Amino acid sequence: MFIKLIEFIGTAIKGPLEETGRIILLQGSVFKWIARRPFELRNIAKQMLEIGVNSLPVVLITAVFTGMVLALQSYTGFKRFGAEGLVGSVVALSMTRELGPVLAALIVTGRAGASMAAEIATMRVTEQIDALETLATNPVKYLVVPRFLSGIIMLPALAVISDIVGIIGGYFVTVVLLGTSSTSYMKATWDFLEVEDIYNGLIKAAFFGAAFTLISCYKGFYAKGGAEGVGRATTGAVVISSMTILISDYFLSAWLF
Amino acid sequence: MIELKNIHKSYGGNHVLRGVNLDIKKGESLVVIGGSGSGKSVLLKHIIGLTKPDEGEVIVDSDVLSQLDEDGLNEVRKKFGMLFQSSALFDSMSVWENVGFGLKRHTDFKNKEIKDIAVEKLRMVGLVGVEDEMPSELSGGMRKRVGLARAIAMEPQILLYDEPTTGLDPIMADAINELIIEMRERLNITSIAITHDMKSAFKIADTIAMLYNGLIIERGSSEEIKNTSDPVVRQFIEGSAEGPITLEGIKR
Ligand SMILES: Nc1ncnc2c1ncn2[C@@H]1O[C@H](COP(=O)(O)OP(=O)(O)OP(=O)(O)O)[C@@H](O)[C@H]1O
Ligand SMILES: [Mg+2]
Q1: Which ipTM score applies to this complex?
Q2: pTM for the whole thing?
């Protein structure tokens, strides 16, 4: 009975452990190739466009509505004990410390992470990755490094934009719709917000950028089995990346703040 | 120039290669024949180091592939051009960018020069005016020829062809055979081709090797293979369903 249980746990964690191991190996090989010429600048630019610029509209809409609903809810709640004046602080702190980076990361994972995994998985199952190798081109350097770098650069950028737009959304609801004074909202925003809040949010964002690109590329890279395999890789990339973002978010927050 | 020593390879319980020995001399044109699923493509991938043998060694110009690091392996691979059975074109790039990929990465040519070279290589394989199209817009036979143009673009010393004429009409197939012969005569290229097309095999081969049950069961000049006494090889080159090779699941 006891042996059975251990066996069961063993098989249950073997897969994830193996996978974690291979992701760490991929990480190692990314670091090995990152500093070597050629620097794949064109590829990096293309990926930055894909990850950053093309995700911008969705990130903007999400951030503005998150800021708005945050303001609306905290206004309703705080009003009960006469603390409406603190709505600006709540919005500013929540957005910069937490929601800006996390929401941006989740959205980009759903968009760019999924397409990364699907593209690389397709290249794998149609032997395009083999073809790269026969043309003396390291596929980690050519495919993974540019995506990884773009993730690390673009997610903090999206997080900053998300922070600002969220605060603007909160301002709009509190000041324009609910009629609180503009100066008191801005004062509440600035009084409690510290540079460290923004800075730590950006560190988280960079970490999320590294995590989702690495996981998505990994899933694509080890895909097998035709169209079905491509589908599995894509789903796996989004699920595992999102989980990693949310779980690591807690630990990073506990550690950073 | 290329030597395979006792290559074994299994996938799960499927023991595909069971001790393949083969050596190919410089300038030689070897054709590998064998039934579908016998491991010909797997064998070809071992030669260029895409697949690592479970046992045995691949030696290219005295470099033992398993002892090379990544950079060493890439240097060896620059001697090769490979045509994949499935073409394996990069579908995010146009036709000429596919053909010029190696030049772009390993030479200092400008884009315009690369495109000119790509157009010329495409012309050699009978493709004109498709350089700006995307691979997805081409027919299967056209893609195969783009793959061939990509393989020869860097003028490699060794060419690996995985079924170069499959999917081509008979006239085009013969033109590709002529191209393969010409490449060898003009540039003294060493080539290894896989084919099911016996007409093409006898046309392009100096020597023919047959892979069967994970082993090279016979190797000889085209003439020797034509007059073979081995019943398995005999059956294969005659393309007969009657003989020692039985087809599982097919009733006769
Ligand atoms: N990556 C792989 N994973 C698992 N099995 C594989 C893999 N590659 C090849 N095989 C198996 O190895 C065997 C030989 O495959 P291979 O593609 O070399 O055949 P082939 O001789 O080229 O056949 P064909 O003439 O049909 O192209 C097949 O049974 C195939 O299922
Ligand atoms: Mg094959």
Answers
A1: 0.91
A2: 0.90
